[in-house]
Amino acid sequence: MKKEVVPVQIRGILPANSGSAIFVGNDDKVFVISVEHNMAAVISMFLRDTPKERPLTHDLMANVFKGFGITVERVLITELRNSTYFARLLLQQQNELGKKIVEIDARPSDCLALAAAFKRPIFVASALFEQVEDMTEVLQRINEGGAEAEGGEKE
Question: What is the pTM of this model?
Fold first, then answer.
């Protein structure tokens, strides 16, 4: 990757007023990405390997990727603009013609769901990681208070 990045993980998922809070970070810092309730539920299912009766949209995408020999390489959360996070999904396809890497603009929630589904690494651009507010203490207080965040420290 051309930009310097910081490896992170999904550290927890909590319901919030108008959606859910996805706590993303590492041992140095944790920050929050707000997502819709249903996206948080999907991400949580993938983190917990919860069986589903029927394939969800991200399962469909995973099956299409497998059918075409495409693997999710990594996810990169790139920037925060007007209170909206932006992300990139990095895919690789290898076949008899060679190897091709494609970088796709995607919502961070979709990227996090696919990273959880494929157990792939999540990165944050260093410049973004430096600018986001550290929510480590908030997550620790929530976990200590008994209302443990779904997902926990998942690798």
Answer: 0.87
